[in-house]
Specification:
Length: about 375
């Protein structure tokens, strides 16, 4: 009996050593690929120069005398020096001045990311991080998901290969111990990637393209199938902010798409868009012009209603910037004039609707 106990104990110890070695290997591998990564979730959403995680001093507890803002969204929350302009909009606010606060803005904005990514980032990437205000500015990237046959659409966007891998992977972050394991992440990602390859091998049309929609599927984009999913993602972020005792600013998504729009006119610079330092993109990467316009309006109306139901801070940026084509370099990305007007509107709004900190009641997740 003693001999068998020793053998079992030895095997367990050997297994622990092996798993520990593999954990170190997996972590080292990811950290070489994504410099600055400290947690498995940062492999999915790596550190960059605006999301805070390249700064070793960016900690969950915000520094004293700091007004900290989190911006969630796609490339519009990434380009045009977005974080700097958001900070500028708040530096002169009465609450900030009266309390002698320094404004710190981080942005999780990244090109092509949807409201689902924003939710995942807020829930997992910024878990336990303190913010005074969370600004949510999503819309257009979700619209691309509509350009597929109705029977193919999935509310969790897993009709994209990307989300078919990401969605099951983020569930790992709800599990104690495993949520800190780079090895567990590597196993799950490898399995999901192999699964994706098998599905695509059996059916080349198993997933929608992650860039330009298929021309033969554009006709399906007029059915805004994303409306419910988009609202659900935003609502989950608002609910999470309540639990975390963080205030929320919702805004309609500003865009400019002239009736005379055509791909050729856009390419030839004939539409009157302003100039900017960021790459301008044709509306066709999101779908047909008609369907994108429809999707933007459906989503914007949903944002208005959501803000009203939840009593969040709210700015109708689309109404404010509508028709000002020189404020845009394309359908939605800002020119220098545009980002100035956009941020100025936020500044003016909070002068009139004074910021107040969230109540200290509620559950901290």
């Amino acid at each position: 009996m003693k001999k068998s106990t020793v053998i079992i104990a030895f095997n367990i110890a050997l297994l622990i050593v092996l798993i520990s070695a593999l954990e170190i290997w997996a972590g080292s591998n990811y950290k070489r690929k994504y410099p600055g990564v400290r947690r498995p979730v940062e492999v999915l959403y790596p550190p960059n120069n605006i999301n805070g995680f390249q700064d070793p001093d960016f900690k969950p507890n915000k520094p004293e005398n700091t007004f900290r803002i989190l911006c969630l969204g796609g490339s519009t929350s990434q380009y045009a020096n977005y974080p700097e302009f958001i900070a500028w909009a708040f530096k002169g606010q009465p609450y900030v001045r009266q309390n002698n606060l320094t404004v710190q803005v981080v942005s999780a904005g990244y090109e092509a990311h949807t409201s689902l990514d924003s939710y995942y980032k807020y829930r997992y990437l910024y878990d336990d991080y303190e913010f005074d205000l969370v600004i949510i500015y999503d819309n257009i990237n979700d619209i691309r998901a509509n350009s597929c046959p109705p029977e193919m659409f999935k509310a969790d966007y897993s009709h994209y290969a990307y989300y078919s891998i990401i969605n099951p992977t983020v569930k790992l972050f709800d599990l104690p111990v495993l949520n800190r394991s780079f090895l567990a992440l590597k196993i799950v990602l490898t399995y999901q990637e192999q699964r994706r390859k098998k599905l695509e091998k059996r059916n080349p049309d198993a997933f929608v393209p992650e860039e330009i929609p298929k021309p033969e599927w554009l006709k399906y984009g007029g059915d805004i199938k994303t409306a419910a999913a988009f609202v659900d993602n935003l609502q989950k972020m608002v609910d999470l902010a309540v639990l975390r005792r963080q205030k929320v600013l919702l805004m309609t998504f500003a865009y400019c798409l002239p009736d005379s729009y055509s791909f050729e006119a856009f390419q030839n610079g004939e539409l009157g868009y302003g100039e900017g330092v960021d790459p301008a993109v044709p509306v066709e990467i999101y779908g047909s012009a008609e369907n994108v316009r429809k999707g933007l309006e459906v989503h914007n109306q949903a944002i208005r209603e959501l803000a009203g139901r939840n009593h969040t801070y709210f700015i109708d940026q689309q109404k404010f910037l509508e028709g000002d084509i020189e404020s845009f370099i394309d359908v939605c990305h800002f020119s220098q004039r545009g980002i100035n007007r956009f941020a100025g509107k936020i500044g003016n709004y909070f002068f009139k609707n004074r910021f107040s900190p969230a109540a200290k009641t509620g559950i901290r997740n």
